[in-house]
C-alpha cells in the first residue's frame, strides 16, 4: 500500500531496511527475549537467527500469497496459525540436524511463535505486498536479526568464555569474564552496542546540523 | 490505495472457510515435517544416548534398554507406560555385562540437573557420572563435569542394599566440601554446593527405586 507522497522502495532498499535502517535488534529493539537469552555463544546466536529467518520468510511468503483471500476479521488468527506451523516445522528440523543445538536453544525455539518481529512483518508488510517484495524484505529483516544476535553472541562468548565458535582464543591462562555469559552480560553488551549505534547516528546528524546551528545561542 | 473506504460485509462462511482452509494446509505441513524428520530425530536421540552411556561405562560396545518393575525386568519396548524404572545395560565386545547406567535428576540452582550414572553390580557401587542436561551457572555449577576432585567421588560410590534388599543401606548424599567421611558420601564442590547436592539427590532418588528392583533379577541382564 502506498501512501501519497511516498515512493515505493526498490528491492535493494527493501532488503537493506532490516539490515540497517530498521534493524530489528539495534534500531527497533524488538524481540529482546530471545536476543538476550540465547546470545551466550556465537553458534547459539547463528542457529537462533537462522531459525527465526526461516520462520519469518516462510510465514510472510504464505501470508502474502493468500493476502487477498483472507477476510480482515480473521487475519490475526490466520497469521498466528501460519507462524505456529512454521515454528513447529523448524523445531523438528533442528532436532533432526543437531540435538546439541536443540538443547542449547531450549524453549526459545518454540517461543519464536510469539516473536513480535514475525507477526509485525506479517501484519505491517506481508499482508500488503506481493510475494517477491515480501520475501526480500523478510530476508533482510531475518539477516538483520541474525547479525544483531551474532554481534551480541560473539562478544559475549569471547569475553565470557574466552572462545569463539567453541575454539579457545587466549590459551589456558585466560580467566573468563563469566558475568558476560550470564543474564546481566546480555544487557551490558546490548547496551554497549546500542550506545555505539546511537553515537554513530548522532554524530552523522550533528555533522549535518552543525552549519545551520552556528551562531544560534541556547536559551 | 483504492480510494474511499468501502464498507464490505464479510460473510461468516468466508471467515470459517478461510480459517478451515489455512488450518488444513498447516496441518498437512506439520504432519509432513514430523514424518519427514522422525527417522533422523530418533537416530540422533539414540546416538546421543549411546554416547552418554558409553562415556560413563568405559569398554562398552553395545547397549540395551530395559524397564524394571515390581514384576521383574523386561526389555523396553518403545514408549514405556511410566511406572517402571528405565535403565541401560552396556555390554563389551564379546557380550559380557560391563555395567548398568540409569538416569536421575534433581533441582539444582537454576533448573533440573539431569544426570546419568554407571552402576557396577559386582562392586555394588556407582562408578561413573555424566550430565545429560543442566542450566547451572557457567563457571560455578557446571564444574560438576570438569572438577576432577568432584568426579573422583564417583570412582566407587557405595550403594549397597540393606539387609532386606528394599532400600540402600546408606542413602547417597552430598556433604560440605572437605567433610566426606564415608564411601556413600559425595564431597561437594566448594561454592557449588547446591548443584553438588542436586547430583547426590538425583543419584539417591533413582538408585533407591532402581537397585532394589534390579538386584533379584540381575541374571536376566547378565549376558546379551
Q: Descriptors for this entry?
A:
heterodimer; A: mainly alpha; two-stranded antiparallel ribbon; 63% helix; globular; B: alpha+beta; seven-stranded antiparallel beta sheet; two-stranded parallel ribbon; 9 strands; 25% strand; extended
Any overview of this molecule?
The complex is a heterodimer of chains A (219) and B (224). In chain A, helix 4 crosses helix 6 and helix 7 (131-161) crosses helix 8 (183-209). Chain A starts with 10 loop residues before the first helix and ends in a 10-residue tail after the last helix. In chain A, strand 1 (163-164) and strand 2 form a beta hairpin. The radius of gyration of chain A is 20 Å and the shape is globular. Chain A has one domain. By secondary structure, chain A is an all-alpha fold. The model of chain A is unreliable at 1-5 (pLDDT under 50). Chain A is built from eight helices and two strands; from the N terminus they run αααααααββα. Chain A has helices at residues 11-21, 32-38, 42-65, 75-97, 99-105, 116-124, 131-161, 183-209, and strands at 163-164, 167-168. Chain A has a two-stranded antiparallel ribbon with strand order 1-2. Helix content of chain A is 63%, strand content 2%. Chain B is an alpha+beta fold and 224 residues long. In chain B, 33% of the residues lie in helices and 25% in strands. Chain B is built from four helices and nine strands, in the order H-E-E-E-E-E-E-H-E-E-E-H-H. Chain B has a seven-stranded antiparallel β-sheet. In chain B, a hairpin with a 5-residue loop joins strand 3 (85-91) and strand 4 (97-107). The relative contact order of chain B is 0.13. The mean pLDDT of chain B is 87. The A-B interface holds A 1-4, 40, 66, 69-74, 77-78, 81-82, 84-86, 88-89, 92-93, 95-99, 103, 106, 160-161, 176, 178, 181-182 and B 1, 10, 14-15, 18-19, 22-23, 26, 29-30, 33-34, 36-37, 40-41, 44-45, 48, 133, 135, 137-140.
| Radius of gyration over C-alpha positions of chain A, nearest whole angstrom | 20 Å
Separation of the first and last Cα atoms of chain A: 43 Å
* Poorly predicted ranges of chain A: 1-5
Average per-residue pLDDT of chain B, rounded, comes to 87
